Amino acid sequence: MSELSITGRIKEFLPVESGISKKTQKEWQKQNFIVCNNDGYEGKEQIYCFEVFGGEKVENLTKFQKVGDEVNVQFNISTNEWKGKYFTSLGAWKIEKATSDQPLPPQNLQTAEDVIATNVDDLPF
Predict the structure, then answer these.
(1) DSSP collapsed to 3 states, the chain
(2) Structural domains of the chain, count
(3) Closest listed residue to residue 2, CA positions, set 72, 75, 71, 52
(4) What is the pLDDT of residue 98?
(5) How confident is the model at residue 102 (pLDDT cuts 50, 70, 90)?
(6) Which of 6, 20, 32, 35 is spaced 20 to 30 A from 44 at the CA atom?
């Protein structure tokens, strides 16, 4: 299987979820986090919801990563079936800060010329 990875900005950390395993009676933890980039059609923002599973991984996620950080996330895709419904998750197994050699997603920022060109008819006089 080929390696799957996404480079983008951490947009949000969702609340930590926890519970007790029915089989092993051990406590588990997981946390989802949102990464966005501008790799969509015509540079539109794409969002991805990744999860990390396990107490140590949950602890390290917010310890070493912050909202707004540029990161490269390596992940696996898995799907589970439950009562005829299917649930797909993106399980992050490696999260690292994006370096200068990795291409960063383009920003949808307007230049001064763009702003002037779009506001030419908006003058009050």
Answers:
(1) CCCEEEEEEEEEEEEEEEEECCCCCCEEEEEEEEEEECCCHHHCCEEEEEEEECHHHHHHHHHHCCCCCEEEEEEEEEEEEECCEEEEEEEEEEEEECCCCCCCCCCCCCCHHHHHHHCHHHCCC
(2) 1
(3) 75
(4) 87
(5) very low
(6) 32
Using CA atoms, how far apart are residues 95 and 39, in angstroms rounded to an integer? 19
| Nearest alpha-carbon partner for 73 in 35, 32, 16 | 35
Token pair, residue 37, equals 């980039």
User: 40-99 pLDDT, tens per residue?
Assistant: 787 788 999 999 999 999 999 988 999 999 999 999 999 999 999 999 999 999 999 987
Distance of alpha carbon 38 from alpha carbon 47, whole angstroms? 9
Q: What is the pTM of this model?
A: 0.72
Structure-block tokens of residue 95: 């999260």
| 32's tokens | 């989802």
Tell me, what CATH number does 16's domain have?
A: 2.40.50.140
